[in-house]
Structure formats: structure tokens, C-alpha cells
Amino acid sequence: MNTVSPGPSAPSGSDPRGTGSRPASESQAVRLTFASGGWVVLLSAVLCVALLAWAFAGVLFGTRPIGDGRSVASYGFSLADLEIGEGILAASGNPRDFLPALDDPRSVPGGEVLEINRHERGKFIVSSDRVIGVVVNGAARAYPIRLMNAHEVVNDTLGGEPIVVTYSGLCDSAVVASRRIGDRTVRFRVSGLLLNSNLVMYDLDDAEPSLWSQLEARAISGPAARAGDRLSLLPGTQVVAWDTWLAAHPDTTVMERDPASVKRYKDIDYRRYWSLGELMFDAAPLPEPAALERDGLTLMTPVVAVEAGGERRTYPYPWIAQRAANAPWTAQQGDVTLTFLWHPAAGTVEVVPTGPGADRTVLVHARYFAWFAATDGGVDLTTDGERREEAP
After folding, report:
1. What sign for the dihedral angle of Cα 303, 375, 193, 209?
2. CA dist 280 to 11, 26, 38, 120, 361, Å?
3. Which residues pair with 194 in a beta bridge?
4. In this structure, is residue 331 part of a structural domain?
5. Domain assignment present for 21
6. What is the pLDDT of residues 65-94, one digit of tens each?
7. What whole-number distance in Å separates Cα of residue 143 and Cα of residue 161?
8. Which of 101, 111, 193, 222 allows an S-S link to 200, with CB 3.0 to 4.6 Å?
9. What's the domain range around 321?
């Protein structure tokens, strides 16, 4: 059954997008300082001002934002053929295109980053910054997550292939796919909607736009959904620290900043939200609390899903960290040998596939709740010598 949420359902805590709220039911007056929560007020104020500026730009320049931040119907997409199972579609609190997707952004050679940092007051990218690393036809490029926070969707061309690089901060999920859909090359934008607290995109160039789920990698409404269109995920996507990526790919390029978005790069940060452990937006299905306790996981545990050797398995970061603490850990998946490298300083996992199907190995990084919902609960958790398959 399709579920359309009437509006955002925020837990107690901070909202990195500036759309949530905290119940005002305190019995004592508490002095607000920057350290004790003033930063939340400041961040919310900054994002509210940005949202108001966006709205009033329509009055001044003849355009109005589409989507009121609360009602899914206000975003102007056809939902007559919406196919999301028991998933929950919700408005994010921001209008359509509030986070501006990028088309063919400028990139610079990775070897120039140190020189750029030396000449700038604010560092472009530092060694511990996480990046989404992509290799297509021998060409490598890094997309800093600090920049992806402010765009979520980047339409690019790498190694002659039109690709879309996507990142959803609410569930820390990175997905890279080809933009070739049948005989078309598609450009994507940020819809302002969420499916199970995960990014929903729309395609830009069709007369009737279709909605696309990032983690499910498929169209969920519109002409593309009626045609059964899916995204073709690119193999080998890594989410690692910049120094790790640069060491493995010294000829890499790195996506440059959008001058119009520099302030947003500083304002948007989801790390505190993940640490709170509560979902700002509903998702379904979710793992049972007893199963989480049994496996030593939480809703926000980071995982990497690996599709290789004709199988798809999910490896939680804490399990990898335990097994790869002192040396690389290997696991066999069909005819592919997976070597897991744990990088404790950055808290990242690098996956190196070898074997006959290595060049077709697809990696998806996300928080556990989001991957569980995206797979309808069909998550195959894997440890050394032990697999637990959660039935939908």
C-alpha cells in the first residue's frame, strides 16, 4: 500500500535542513549557550532566512517555488501511478529545487588541491574529508560529501559516460548511476520529496517529469515508472577519505565548488543528526528492535551493500571494523573475493573486489534503516562465516 505522509514528522533534536522542531515542554528555564544548543537556533535561523529569500525571489523575479514543504500534492508531480509498496512519501520541508543540482561542474586535478588550500582562507578539501570516488573507463573523480550536502544531485560526464552522482544526507547514502535510460540521456533534479527519509529525484527534460528513488534506483511515478525504468548503477563506487582516494588514484580529478553555494557548504552538516539516532522523517519497513539488539546495530549504523557474484549482501561498518582492525579482512561472494579495509581515522570502509566479476561489483553505502526500507526488509547481513537474512 502506498503511503503519502501529510507532512514532516520530526523527532526531538536538531534538523540539519532547518525544517524540524523540538517540543517546548521543559519544566525548568535553561540558559541557552552556543555549546548547549545555541548552534541549533543559529543554524535554523540561517536556513530559514535562505528559505524566505528563495520564496521572495519569486515575487521579485516572477517565479515561485513549487512545493510548500508540507503537502506532497503541492509539489506538482503526478502521483496517480505511484508505486512505493509500504514506503512513505513525504515533503522534506523544502520546495522543489531548493537544493540546486549541478550540471557538468568544473573539476580540478587532485594534485593541485594542496596549492589551492595554501592560497585560500577556507580549505577546499582536507585529507580527512569524505568523498564519493568514481572511476569510469579509467577516469577517476572525487565528489566531496561536504559539497554534495548542498546539491545532492550532480549530472556529470566522466570517461565519456553521462553519469549522475547522488548523495542523501538524511541517510548518508551515495549512489552513482549512468544517465542513459534506454535511448535517452536524462538530467536529474532534487524533487523536495523523500521516500523513507531518502532522496527522491525527478527527471528534467520530459514534458511530464517522473519521480525516482535514489536507493531503490528506479522510477516510482510518471512515464518512466509506467515503462518500468531503472537506473544502471556504476561499479566500484567508494566512500572514503580524500587522502585514501588520492593515494589509490593519483591522477584523479575532484569536483570544484559552485560559487553560488559556498555559504551552504558551511551551513549543512548531518553528523549531529546521525548521532541522535532518531529519524526526522518516517520510513517503512524498519528492522525490529529485537533484531537490532541481536545484531548489535542501530537504525543509523552505516553499512555497505555489495552486489557481486550474483548475490547482494550487506556488511555493517562495525562488523568490518572489528574484523579488519589489524589487517584487511576478506570475504567470498560468489566468484568475487572482497577485501575490506577499515580506515579508523575517517571511520570509512574501502572495498577492493578481485576475481572474474570484480569489474561488475556494485557498492552502495547508506545508513542501515534506509537500506532496510529500500530493500523491503530483504537485507542479507553478512559476517565472517555467518549470514542472517531478514525476510520482508
Report:
1. positive
2. 5, 20, 20, 36, 32
3. 90, 199
4. yes
5. no
6. 999 999 999 999 999 999 999 999 999 999
7. 16
8. 193
9. 285-389
The pLDDT tens digits of the residues spanning 329-366 come to 999 999 999 999 999 999 999 999 999 999 999 999 99
- Note whether residue 25 is domain-resident: no
193 in the same domain as 132: yes
Q: Across the chain, what does the average pLDDT equal?
A: 87
Query: If you write DSSP's letter for every residue of 315-376 in order, what string do you get?
Result: EEHHHHHHHTSSS-EEEEETTEEEEEEEETTTTEEEEEEESTTGGG-EEEEEEHHHHHHHTT
Chain CA centroid to CA 77, Å:
22
Q: How far apart are CA 324 and CA 340, in angstroms?
A: 7
Q: What are 370-385's pLDDT values in tens digits?
A: 999 999 999 988 754 4
Residue 85 to residue 325: CA distance in whole angstroms: 39
Residue from 132, 179, 83 nearest 348 by CA: 132
Residue type, 374: A
Residue 253, domain member (yes or no): yes
Same domain, 258 and 170: yes
Q: 3-class DSSP state for residue 61?
A: helix
